[in-house]
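STRUCTURE REQUEST FORM
Protein name: Major facilitator superfamily domain-containing protein 3
Source organism: Seriola lalandi dorsalis
Requested output: structure tokens
Priority: standard
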Amino acid sequence: MNDKLVFLGLLYFVQGIPYGLQSSLLPVYLRGAGHSLTRIGFTKILYFPWVLKVLWAPLVDRLGTKRHWLVGTVSGLALTCLSSAALAPEAHIWGVAGTLLAMNTLASVQDIAVDGAAVGLLKGRGELGLGNTAQVVGYKAGSVFAGGGLLAVIDVAGWSWMFMLLTFVYAGVALFVWGGPVLDDETVRGQQADGSRRGGQGMDAMRPWRVWRKLLAVPGTPWTVLYVLTYKLGEQGAVTMFPLFLLDHHMTARELGFWNGVIAMGFSICGSSLGGLLLAQFSIGALMRRVFVLRTVSMVFQSSLLTVLEPSPLMKGMAVLSMSVQHFLGGLITTLTFTTMMHCTQRAEESIQATHYSFLATLEVLGKLTFSALAGGVVDWFGFQIAFLFFLTLSAGTALHVWTATFTGALREHQLKEQPK
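Status: completed
Returned output:
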């Protein structure tokens, strides 16, 4: 089990690096250069490959092995970072955008392969909880490394050295995956499945609507689709815009990189880790009811801080506390969400499991991406206070949606006990 967790955690770590670069480093860089919140919000378009990944998920399911896909995509990320080391962001802003777009494309394909591997490797409720903790914690640790750690040292080390470091990180992980024993059994399973891939599943590949019907027919999928599209809407708006409010009124870019990019994200990792431990002891429905209510309360507290514009040590401390609590609860919710998604996927046929999980994960990204792109425009049009009232309303609506589902819908506890042991 430990080998599985290390393997998955490391792959999700390198997968989180592009997100950290774009979500934490790039907005602070652009805001410091005087760009509007609306323009900063539209940089989320670079995440678009994550929305499209469901289109090529069937290829990853049916062509080659997960090991080949993982080695290929991680190696591609290493080469992309190597070429990016020659760029100067001040003079080659479009080159930087192209780099992030390429990294997001490769990371999205890697995500399909590692998710498919995780669905096959993790068995039973205990492994699911710990495995999804490794997924979320690894991804967020990579985001912290890129968005917090590198933001704090980029002024000293420089852009080129930063990307050279990332090149060596990706190259090392590619070698680890190539020689790692965790996926050794996959080759045998792949050889046994070759006949069926060339037969009935090959016909499905030629008729994609059959695959879509199979995806939507998996028990629990319709509710899960609505949930993953909406569960982060209010939180995502606050997480995206509150640091920029602090940059305008209370903190420098270096302070923000430390408190939001490192400390707050550290709390997010703690929340994600706690989620895996709690799942081994309590039902997911009971956990989700309580955590979603707590998240709504934390957003009320954060929204109240927007009325304070004068810098002070007390305000800075309250802001750090608010971000830390919000990230802690957000990390806990993310672990619970990905466990719910993986549980739903394990009810699907093995031949479409990677595609099914990628379908849910794509919608999860789409919900966050769409709102993140629009949040800056909402703040520019209506101001921080009214915008955060809107974010709070969305968060409260999601809490009600989850609360109802734990009693009358897809999260009823007897359904979640159907999970294979």
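Reviewer notes: DSSP finds 18 helices and no strands in the chain. The two ends are 15 Å apart (CA to CA).
Form closed.
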